[in-house]
Amino acid sequence: MYLKHIFRSACSRVRCLRAAAKHGNLHLTVTRNHRNNMMINEIATFARQVQLLHYDLSTWSNGVEAGLTTMKAMLDSPLPIPYDHTENGVAAFDPEPHAVGHSVETNNFISAIGVMKNKLEEECLGPLGRWMEAVASIQERNLTCHKLGLDVDQQALVLCKADEKLARCQQTAPEEPGLTPEAALEAALINKQTEEDKLVRLEQRFTEMEADVFNHIVDVMHDAQVVREYAASGLVIMQGAVHTSLSSFDLNAKPDPYNLPPQAMPDIKVPAMAPVKIPMADMRSAGLYTFREKLCTHQADPLAAASEGGAEYLPTPPEVAKSSTGGASTSAPPRKMHAEDHVSLKLHVDTIQVPDEPTPKAA
Question: What's the whole-model pTM score?
Fold first, then answer.
């Protein structure tokens, strides 16, 4: 529809320019409505943003309503009932129902939703919707003004033809048979005056409508300045609904006693460890004292030294060194005992079984 009127305007402009060039009428011009058209384009661009804001505020309010409704249903739900083994089988440990929101006034959620919806419609969504309706109305009025401008251009062409006919009647014989030159001239003059009156009335109507559309566009642009307040009002209203719902919680109230069965402790049996037996020959070959030799020949306690973190240099007894070298008495260098040796000895002090030393036979 709008493209059709644009095409008509272009055709009217071409016809007016051709008639002005043909008859030398420099006053025959195309009716202009450029300032309104330019402002309408600006308003349409801004109105699309307002429309998105209106849609998002509506969506947010629906989201807040759905969230509070879901939260109310959750808070009114009972806690799960615990079960445990009894003498008669599995039974409820605490059969009494316990609500999750026992100290929450969930009825305030419904009232907060109602207040939010009403205030949002009155103070935010309603004004934004009326502003967009005003924009749509002014666009329709501007389109009507554009059509009226086309009618003015068309009437200007009709007047141009009537003026041309009057000029022919003044110069030549009348075209209609049976008319005197005076009658034909008078008829052409009356026709020109009639067309002039029509053109004047159309121009006046167009001028008034163009000014009226311009004023309405300015008013709509002036009202667009308060869209910021409408957006802030929507956020405050939704925040108020959430704050009212939050104030329904009594966080200082003691929780509802919820009896749960004790933690199950499984009976785990650890098998006993068998004692470890280390042959004495292996201990001697490693250069370590037997427990009996340590207690008899060494005055210091190697286990205590190991527990204190010190490293003891324990000399190998001569008889042990002699037996380990096949009878030759050699002095072996002292060996450094590490902490792990003492710890291993200390761990097995109660479990190592030391065999008795064989008594040497008399020569």
Answer: 0.58
